[in-house]
Structure formats: structure tokens, C-alpha cells
Amino acid sequence: MLRVQIMTTSFYDRLTPIQSARGIFDDARYARAPGDWLLAVSDIKGSTQAVAEGRHSDVNFSAAAMIAALTNLCGQIPYQFGGDGASALVPPSDEQRVRRELARVRAFAARDFKLDLRIGLVGVRALEQRGFQVRVGRYEASPGSAYAVFRGGGIEFMEQAVKGRGDDGLAAEAMIADAENDGVPPDLTGLSCRWTPIKAARGSMVSLVIKGADHEEIHRDLAGITGLVSLDAISEKQMEPRWPPKGLVREAKARRGRVPLALMIPVTALITLVAYIFVKNRWNAGRFNANRYVKEVAEGAVDFARTDESLCLVFDCPLDKIDAVKSYLEDRCRRGELKYGLHVSDHAVMTCLVISPEHGQHVHFVDGGDGGYTKAATQLKAQV
């Protein structure tokens, strides 16, 4: 915990926080990432098939593992969750340790979930030399829980290279070799999945991945069509702690290090049982305030991502408005103004990174149920 509190002096911390979801559309709130910082990008190869097999929670958890590992290593950094992948910026002083940690995370995903996590790391300057920028905004609806949004084209350009569909020279420069894994498990402290699936209260959970057009206009139009004040997925009333959590074994895998999984599962069960009792009964202990914590989870739940030309949303949509949402998007797609993918389910899921619940340092990544982002992205790829 001390390391996280010490290592927070960077360009990211100097950015004025964006405190409302609509504020992410103000490009004046974005700042250029320093050229000597490094961009890490991950993507799970075969995520569509894994989701089809019902392994969407494994996909989400493995994607969030990179964020957990780099946060525990570097402190508060800009990062973004994408369902089946993630992006993060790290300082140059940590480059060698970051490379090693990324290799460890890839090995973790392969060992514990049989998933092929593709990872790349490259300097921001290398992207700028190719004509792309990395501009960063700092979204912070709840103090202490910062989440990044990106503009400039650099993230998506890097993602394509890592997936083997873009600049081969950049892919080679960004490669993390298997030999860089020293066999030590990554530090995934704080990574968990303890909440029950969030049932839709208004109708259905809509997962959207949109490319192109004016993001602010789209967001405003969707709010008008649905009649919602805000396009969000989570409220306090919908949240219900669960024991044993559905993600108990996943959390045990993240915690175990070199300890046999059979031993770590009962330890994790006990830890999660204590947490469940306190949250369920709204008990306080020391600096931990259960009511405040639950309120912060609902306020800070990250149900969107804005990356370059793409806007991703998960929101609880009134059932009688879903066809209108589809018609709106399809009409704009036919006119060539945007491309999109959409998935509808009856719930959403959260993957959580809890560094310090007492000090408000926790972020909760929302995805649509049954692989919302991944299925929506698959539809989008078919259109593109």
C-alpha cells in the first residue's frame, strides 16, 4: 500500500479529474502523454471462442490481470479495460520490471485459464514517429478511483499491431519474449470478482462498441432515445454481495503465487466470507465504512471506455427502447457515419481491483453479461 501512495507523482496526477461521464467528450481535458512513457496493450487471442464456451468471466479476469499487475508495480497509472484486453501507460523508469511483469501475466493467463494473452510494450515516441498520438484524460467519478480515456489514434494503432493486423515493425519492437518470464507469479493483489451478476432493473443490459462519428452526439442521442438521465449499468439497489462468490476459484488463482491451488481456495473462502459479512450487514471496522464503500462502488463502476475512434458502453436500457436504439444505430450505419456492434443480456458483471477500500482506492470494471463487449466487438468486426 505504501508504494501505491508514494508513486503517484506523474503527468497523470496533474490532470484535472473528469468527474462526470459526459465530461469525457471534452477533448480539451486530454493531455499528451510524455514521449518517454511506454504503452502496454493486451488482447486475448480466441476470446470470441472462449466467450462462446461460457468462459467470459475468465476472459474479463485475465484482461484485468494486466491492470492489476502494473498498478501494483508502478502505482497509479493511466489504464483502461476493454473486456478481452487492456491498455496502460507506464513510466520509463520501470521499463525492465514492467517487461518482466507483463511476461508473468501472460504466463498466468496461460497456466490458470488456458488463454493466449497477447501483450506488447512500446514507447509513446515510437507511435508519434508513425504519426499517432496518445492523449490521456483522467476520469474520476469517485475520489481515488481514476480511470483513463484515450484519444489520438495511438492505442488502436498499437492494438492492431499486437493482434498481427497492423504495422509489423511496431509489432516486433513491442514484442515481449517468453524468456522475459522468470517464473515468478505476477502480483495480482486486489483483483477479485465477488459481486453477484448485476440484474437489469430497467429491462436489459446493452453492450455497445461504436467506431466513428461524434461520440458526444451519439451519447446524447442515446440518452434522449432511452429517456435516461445517464447511460449507466449499476446502482446501489442492484448490488448484492455473494458468498461463496462465483469467482472464488479465480480469485484464489490470482492470490496463490506458488501455493498449491487446493490450499489457497479455503484461505480465499475465509477471506471473502469475512468481507461478505461486513458488506452484507454494512458493518464498519477501523477506517472501513461499508456504506461508503458500496456507494463508491456504484458511483465509480466503469461501464464505458473511450479510445481514439471507439466508444464502448454498457447500460441498463428500458426494454421498450432497445429496438429504437438498434434502429438509430442501424440508420447511421447505413449512411456510412459509424460502425457498431451491440449485444443484449439480462445482466452485467463486474471485475474488481480493490487496492484500499478504506481510502477509496478501488475500481470496478463492468462488462455486459455473457461476454457483452466481446460479442459486440465481433459484430463490429464483421461490419468493418
Characterise this structure.
The protein is of the alpha+beta class and 384 residues long. Helices cover 39% and strands 23% of the residues. It has helices at residues 2-6, 11-14, 47-52, 56-74, 95-113, 124-128, 154-162, 168-174, 215-226, 248-255, 261-280, 290-300, 322-334, 372-383; strands spanning 31-32, 38-45, 79-81, 85-90, 116-123, 135-139, 147-151, 191-192, 198-199, 203-211, 301-302, 304-307, 310-318, 339-345, 347-356, 361-368. A hairpin with a 3-residue loop joins strand 3 and strand 4. Helix 4 (56-74) packs antiparallel against helix 5 (95-113) and helix 10 packs across helix 11 (261-280). It starts with a helix and ends with a helix.
Quick synopsis:
39% of the residues lie in helices and 23% in strands. By secondary structure, the protein is an alpha+beta fold.
In helices, the fraction of residues equals 25-40%
Task: Specify the CATH class of the largest domain.
Answer: Alpha Beta
User: SSE string, helix = H, strand = E?
Assistant: HHEEHHEEHEHEEHHEEEHHHHEEEHEEEH
> What shape does the CA trace take?
globular
- What fold name goes in the CATH topology slot of the largest domain? Alpha-Beta Plaits
Secondary-structure class: alpha+beta
Number of domains: 2
Low-confidence stretches: 1-8
Proper CATH architecture of the largest domain: 2-Layer Sandwich
Number of separate helices: 14
End-to-end span in angstroms?
44 Å
What kind of sheet is the major sheet? 5 strands, mixed
Number of strand segments:
16
Please state the average pLDDT score: 93
Rg from alpha-carbon coordinates: 20 Å
Question: What portion of the residues fall into strands of 2 or more residues?
Answer: 15-25%
